[in-house]
Amino acid sequence: MKPFYGLVLFFISNLCFAETVTIDPTSTTKADDANSIANMYRMGMGVPKDMKKAFELYQIAAELGNTDAQIDLGDMYYSGKETTQSYEKANYWYEKAANKNNATAQMYLGYAYLNGKGVVVNYDKAKSWLELAVKQGEPSAMYHLGTMFFDGKGVTKDQDQATPLFKKSCSEGDSNACDKLKEIKIEK
Prior knowledge:
This protein is mostly helical and 188 residues long. It is built from ten helices and no strands. The protein has helices spanning 2-16, 31-43, 51-63, 67-79, 87-98, 103-115, 123-135, 139-151, 159-171, 175-187.
């Protein structure tokens, strides 16, 4: 019985310490697998941590239509991790995911249009994307939409509309919204 356990241990250790993982980039059924393996490389789970390899795999998964990979790839372009920083490319991937009704991506696009990150400031588009994300309960979108109303950016200034958005966002864990509520209380 002991040789059996040794053989099992050998196969498991080979799987855990494998240096390379390949995905057929022409397959449209491998998007989730590529994204999962990219996450493994990003975190160093079962494979050596390798952000360059993670980026390559996110690229494959994103091109195959994986929404999570599209957001992760957008994040890498946004921050400039393992690639040249590009808000334009980040927004390209965020828009792909946003068009699949992903609330996080919709919030990112709303933020981009609100602040001119890789796009020309466009309050109508900002509001539209943020409202879509708010309908899905995205806390940061609530905060950003609240700031539009609070500051009167592209909408009529309306603190009565902003405050409930800040409260809901804060209750969902967005610290920016909690800080804004504290600031509002100080002003009154």
